Amino acid sequence: MRPRYSALSLLRHAVAETPWPRAWRVPDPKPTYDVVIIGGGGHGLATAYYLAAHHGIKDIAVVERAYIGSGNLGRNTTLVRSNYVLDGNTQFFEYSMKLWEGLSHELNFNVMLSQRGQIVLAHGPSQMDVLARKGNIMRLNGIDAELLDRGEVIKLLPYLDHSGEARFPICGGLFQQRAGTVRHDAVAWGYARAADSLGVDVIENCEVNSFVIDGDRVRGVNTTRGRISAGRTAIAVAGHSSHLAAMAGLRLPIESHLLQAFVSEPIKPFLDHVISFGAELFYISQSDKGGLVFGGHIDGFNSYTQRGQFPKVQTVAECAVALIPSISRLRLLRHWAGIQDMTPDGSPFICRTPLRDLYLNGGWCYQGFKATPAVGWCFAHTIANDDEHPLSRCYSLDRFARGRELDDYGVGNWTYKQ
User: Fold this and answer.
1) Is the pTM of this model over 0.70?
2) Among the listed residues 210, 214, 218, 213, the one whose alpha carbon sits nearest the alpha carbon of residue 63
3) What residues pair up with 302 in beta bridges, in sequence order?
4) How many Å apart are CA 260 and CA 339, to the nearest integer?
5) pLDDT in tens, 275-293
6) Residue 151: exposed, middle, or buried by beta-carbon count in 10 A (0-12, 13-18, 19+)?
7) Which residues on neighbouring strands pair with residue 233, listed in sequence order?
8) Where are the beta strands (DSSP E) in 20-77?
9) Domains of the chain from N-terminus onward
10) What is the pLDDT of residue 410?
11) Which carries the bigger pLDDT value, residue 410 or residue 93?
12) Which of 20, 51, 31, 67 is nearest to 382 (CA)?
């Protein structure tokens, strides 16, 4: 039974010196598990939860080298949406959107989903054509989409630069009302607590340094806290996918880049939607605390540092001011960087690997956070059944050899990825 707190118990804990009970246990690793999941971010925790809740596999360890949510789950701009073009991507991200809509109830934990809507802006007739095509594809797949003309954008977003002197004149936009934001740390805590309540061991400060390999089969992992044997082993480590895979002798078609994000000092609410800038890869929303949260393109070099560089800070700030001149005097409160696994076609992997009993989830580029629930659902299915889920079958590791790329990035979508 998950803990429920009355108003009296909340007050008692607020004034008493006794600490709150832990939301999940702090177990020591056992010598063996049915499944070991490497990575305590949103994808790893969601996979463990769905394995336990929907497949009946509860002898699971999630091993995280630091603390849960310390990687990309805690280093993103919290956007969720399902406005994709290509078959495979379209259905997968819409399923993720539907899971987001029921996640607070599923986990008995408020993940603070805010369906404030996303507007993707267009700055010329060709971009309006791209958005019209995207909107039609979305609607044919049962996904909400509304094409806005210039007047409708002005009415909905009056604070943008609609003047005759605008650096990038706004012609219209595409509106998805169900898109929005989710509180990233609530996602980590919700999945961790729910998985723990089903018997999953969430083991922090436990770094994997090699795999236990017997012929063509993976039998477990060696960690800083000892060897852990496993019937099945799964990799879900975001920007370190190629590094972990190399330990098992796998070479992935991945580059790791930094993606910076920014938050301003808090101001009164005025930005009611998520806005994507069609002139450059830029996206902005306002947090519940009042800060403007925004980001842009990846830094143009490979790195694992989680530290961004000034040229990208300058470019993103220029985009912000070009789009919303009134924020030009705001102070930047902080900025940070996550590590992105960049694949050749911008789409991920959720699949089996050439090694038996080793499974891979990675290569998420800009898209990892919004995909979290569907990743957990599909990856859990893949591990439990040793077969890819129909929704994620297109995300195989050999798709490049078979000529089955999923390049939303190359079909007019490049300005809209975040």
Assistant:
1) yes
2) 210
3) 257
4) 9
5) 999 999 999 999 999 999 9
6) exposed
7) 36, 358
8) 32-38, 60-63
9) 28-82+184-254+345-402 (3.50.50.60), 118-181+256-342 (3.30.9.10)
10) 65
11) 93
12) 51
